[in-house]
Amino acid sequence: MQGGVLLPNAGGPGVRAAAYPAQLVAERMLADIPIRITVAQDPAVVLGKLDAQHQAYIVRSSAYTVLVVAITLLVSAGLWHQQRLHRAVARSEQENRKLIGLLEQEKGRAITLVSQDYLTGLANRRMFKELASTELKRARRSRNLYALLFFDLDRFKVVNDTLGHGVGDLLLKAVASRLKGALREYDLVARLGGDEFVALLSEIPSEEFVSRLAGKLVAELSATYRDLDGYDVETSPSVGIALYPRDGQDLDELLMHADQAMYSAKARGRGCFRFYHASLNPSGVLHSELSSRFRGAIQDDEFRLHFQPKVALATLQIVGLEALIRWEHPEHGLIFPGDFIPLAEEQGFIVPLGRWIIDAVCRQLAQWRTAGVPVVPVAVNVSARQLRDEQLAAEFTAALEKYRIPPRLIEIEITESCLIEDTRLAKSNLDSLAALGIRIALDDFGTGFSGLSRLKEFPIHTVKIDRSFIRDIRNDTNDAVIVAATIALAHNLGLNVVAEGVESKDQLVHLKAAGCDQVQGFYLHRPADGDAVSTILHKHLPALQMS
Length: 547
Ligand code: C2E
Ligand code: MG
Ligand code: MG
Prior knowledge:
Helix content: 40-55%
Number of helices: 17
Bound molecules: ligand C2E, magnesium ion
Number of strands: 20
């Protein structure tokens, strides 16, 4: 209940408070009027509202408190749970780590087992491939030169077969340790299997360096292996070399090319090294065709002989023919000898093929003679490998007898490479052939290493100047001087001189002026088959007029 009383302005606040003890009192003295106004209100009325608010506040804050406590409890329960999980994860991680450690150890042991050659302790094929590939990837950035050497032991099978596998194993171990000892520590050496070893030499300064090193390795590996289980064993390596980046951009290509070069070293007579050369590797198709079909190709009569005339410059008459082989392949058409002769040499097919050629040349001569063709001597190209075949002279003799051909109608052409290394067998074959009455020409002269003076050791009758000197004879004074000097020197030694690859009248005139005896080349006659050549021989006319 609210109310107001007007009182005289005389008394003090103490009187007023006493008059309204249970009331809330507000007093105000008016300044000019002696009246005091007192306003009083019942506290229940004033505080009632507040009480309700207070109650609501208490309820709310209790609810909040309960909520907060509940949340806190929930969060701490969650945290506690998480902590438990963490501890479990940490424990299992620790166990995992222990397990991984064990596995790593096992893996290390397994890798050593699978990456190391059990016999020699060298890296095996797998390890070598891994390490060498990484090394070559690095090489691509650094632009360094690398050399891949492929070793195959000559006659290893004989050692194994005759002295037993125990001695064979000891030999392989000894070779491995000599190889490792002769190379630098950072060169990769591995045994690929059997008697095949490889080495990747890094950061090589030049090809000559590799050449010297390969020579040294061949010598070291060829020295007698003393006391292998009581035996002194002789062997030598055939080494093929491929250079990075020249001969291959990746490891597989380098391995393939070094392998081919190794075969070529073997064909050359073993115990030597050979660099890869692109001519060893015609198309892959031909490579596999030759390997698989070679003997079949001889039996199926797929080889053909073409003949290219040689003309005497004095008379412009045809004075000889050169037999040039071609492979008439049922699928690939006519294949030229540059694409298969090096392979045939490398893979040991050249001897049977050479036998076929000798027989085919004599057969052709016999046919011409029977047909009344005025025949001239036919030259047969004989490769280095054939010249080391002990049967060569006997094969010529047999074919000459079989077709009743006089030996003066046969010539052979050999290249300078036949006269450089291991010439003992070559010389004895050449002596036997010369003794039969077969004339011998040195083909492609000027491209090899032999000087004319060396020729005195062999029964050579003719030199054929390589066509690379004839090509620019009119423009290149060096070539002109070389040709003139070769002709003069050869004549001094009593040799006949033939120029190969004459393609123009200018060249012909120049060669005549230089005193050359015979010429051969597309300008005069292209190689042609037996029938076409017989027509030319029949006419036997001067090939052309040199006005
Ligand atoms: P080569 O004995 O020096 O034979 C000459 C080569 O030069 C032949 O190539 C011939 O066709 C080619 N030729 C001739 N005149 C010219 C000319 O004016 N210009 C040009 N650019 N080339 C000319 P072909 O028949 O391809 O024989 C290449 C090589 O293959 C021969 O060189 C020889 O080394 C070898 N070869 C050929 N036939 C036989 C063979 O029956 N047995 C053996 N072992 N090797 C052979
Ligand atoms: Mg020739
Ligand atoms: Mg030639």
